[in-house]
Write a structure and sequence with these properties.
Helices cover 44% and strands 15% of the residues. The protein has 432 residues and is α/β, with parallel strands linked by helices. The strands form 4 sheets. The chain has an 8-stranded mixed beta sheet, with helices on both faces. The structure holds 2-acetamido-2-deoxy-beta-D-glucopyranose (2 copies).
Length: 432
């Protein structure tokens, strides 16, 4: 902006000087040349000067406008900066690490401790379930760098016979419920970032959550900030744009921030198992969205136990973890507020050219810029998603990373929208 304005002023000045030069030289030539009536010439010169005067006035007016705009921008800049600093100052955001029986929790803790800019601003609470002594020993080695709490309820859980093999999910839900109660009601924090013991984190993990925190507080249509892009595989993300963020209707989890007010809403009806799919149901989500990054700020380094090993091998291990530090707290993230974001997204998506999967794959599109692939049915969505290597599943009718039915990703150097019709009416709960 500043460079453009300076350039504009310089450019105008050059033009102005040129006009004066040309005018003066012209007049001189006409005056010394020929034998016409001197009066006539003087008249012409007068006209010329009047014209010049008008031009100068115009130029000076322009200059005033530019200077005024610049002054105003400076005021806005300043206000926003002061405002933002106030919001960040004194904001304590604990990180709650959920551990059980994996000694590899140290890998996650090492990174959290290495990257956190300030231990007072980001206290680390490790909540351990499972009473696994070896893991407790590992955690205890961190001393006062972390706070260890232990889930006291180790009673056996009554699981329906059909779900015996999913018992782990029941234990996890119970642990989450207890640990979040501790964080919000016992320690009285206002916000928390939840991390599981099998996550690597990016160097700007804390900066990301701190920078997006004001959005979570200000925008009532946001209910979480997530570090995870479900389609964040190499080849589907723009590696040159680690600063890019999106809204998503699909709750991503895997390193996410929530506020106490959301927990107050959820805690009394917290489910006995499968909490992540439960939270994605319309009764819980209530049309609220999360922020997610283009390039994930977490990555799971392998899950043994409850989660599906195949899912890790086929998908999770290809997610790219961001390596560049993006100064989110110093950036203007207002474009993510619902009204601005929705307008801009709808405008760009439905102005973009429609292409087929084949055209996209063959890279046979003659122009630059974003393109759109349309889907009308669940099967069409799944087919295209599979071909492109996108996640093709739905939860409560929402595709992964979907926002208003639109799945945005990066492919062969351009932004692609897998999008429904413009008159889209909402998610179909029956799509699964
Ligand atoms: C958490 O606290 C809420 C509110 O007091 C309570 O209803 C819920 O049972 C608690 N959950 C757990 C797992 O302790
Ligand atoms: C921040 O971004 C918003 C939305 O894109 C814009 O309207 C506003 O002018 C920006 N503020 C500054 C200080 O650049």
């Amino acid at each position: 902006m500043r460079i453009r304005r300076t350039f504009f002023i310089g450019f105008s000045l050059v033009i102005w000087l040129l006009i004066i030069y040309v005018t003066v030289v012209n007049r001189q030539i006409t005056l010394t040349d020929g034998n016409e009536d001197v009066n006539n010439r003087l008249l012409k010169l007068e006209e010329g000067i009047a014209e010049q005067y008008k031009l100068n006035k115009h130029f000076i007016n322009d200059l005033h406008t530019v200077i005024e705009a610049k002054k105003q921008a400076a005021v806005v800049d300043n206000e926003i900066e002061v405002h933002t600093r106030k919001e960040f100052k004194g904001t304590v955001i604990p990180v709650l690490v959920l551990a059980c029986n994996r000694v590899s929790v140290s890998r996650c803790l090492d990174q959290l401790i290495q990257y956190r800019p300030n231990p007072d601003q980001f206290p680390i609470i490790v909540s351990q379930d499972c009473n696994h002594q070896e893991t407790t020993d590992v955690i205890n080695r961190y001393g006062s760098q972390i706070l260890l709490i232990q889930q006291p309820d180790q009673s056996d859980i009554d699981v329906p016979p059909k779900e015996k093999k999913f018992k782990g999910y029941f234990k996890i839900a119970r642990h989450y419920g207890w640990a979040l109660n501790q964080t919000f009601f016992n320690f009285n924090f206002e916000t928390v970032i939840i991390v599981e013991d099998d996550l690597d984190v990016a160097p700007d993990f804390f900066e990301y959550f701190l920078g997006t925190y004001p959005l979570l507080i200000k925008d009532p249509y946001l209910w979480c900030i997530s570090a995870w892009n479900d389609n964040g595989k190499l080849g589907l993300v723009d590696e040159k744009k680690p600063e890019l963020l999106y809204r998503t209707d699909f709750f991503p989890g895997l390193g996410w921030m929530l506020t106490k007010s959301l927990w107050i809403e959820l805690c009394s009806k917290w489910p006995r198992a499968y909490w992540d799919d439960w939270i994605r149901q319309p009764e819980q989500r209530k049309d609220r969205a999360c922020i997610r990054p283009e390039i994930s700020r977490t990555r799971t380094f392998g899950k043994i136990g409850v989660s599906n090993g195949l899912f890790f091998e086929k998908h999770l291990k290809y997610i790219k973890l961001n390596e560049v530090f993006v100064p989110f707290t110093k950036m203007n993230l207002s474009y993510l507020m619902k009204d601005i974001y929705d307008n801009e997204l709808i405008r760009t998506v439905y102005q973009s050219a429609v292409v087929s999967y084949q055209e996209l794959k063959d890279d046979k599109i003659a122009y630059d810029g974003p393109v759109r692939i349309i889907y009308h049915t669940k099967d069409a969505f799944k087919r295209t998603a599979k071909l492109l290597g996108l996640m093709d599943d739905f939860r409560s009718g929402v595709p992964r990373t979907g926002y208003r039915g639109i799945v945005t990703f990066h492919y062969k150097g351009r932004t692609v929208y897998l999008a429904p019709n413009m008159n889209w009416k909402g998610y179909e709960l029956s799509w699964s």
